[in-house]
Amino acid sequence: MDIIKASGKKEKFNKEKLYQSIKRAGVKPKLAEKICQNVEKSVYSGINSSQILDQITHSLKKENPVLAAKYTLKRAIMELGPTGFPFEKYIAEI
Fold first, then answer.
1. What is the C-alpha separation between 13 and 74, in angstroms, rounded?
2. Is the whole-model pTM more than 0.70?
């Protein structure tokens, strides 16, 4: 099934990619697997990646709010601009 990325591009849902993404935030493998299983049950063709991120964040907030914040950091930076340049410019100013 296809998901819609933030860029608008369609991509096949990849549970392993999701699992690795969650683990990179410091989530222990057992919890990462549990979250992946829950997300996989609710994914449907055409779902936005931001909706998947919301599901993951909600699950992580219940278990560990610090890890939830760490996981959503990438989203926060991307909201500053797709190139990341606005973020760099902002940091340079301060």
1. 19
2. yes
| Residue 61 CB-half CA count within 13 A | 8
Burial of 79 (0-12, 13-18, 19+ CB in 10 A): exposed
State the residue range of the domain holding 20: 2-93
Residue 87 burial class via C-beta count within 10 angstroms: exposed 0-12, middle 13-18, buried 19 and up: middle
Residue showing tokens 């991509």: 11
With contact defined as beta carbons under 8 Å apart, do 22 and 34 qualify? no
The enclosing H or E element of 67 equals helix 65-79
The model's pLDDT over 7-51, given as tens digits with 9 standing for 90+, comes to 899 999 999 999 999 998 899 999 999 999 999 999 999 999 989
Domain count, the chain: 1
35-42: Cβ within 8 A, 24+ apart: 35/59, 35/60, 40/13, 40/15
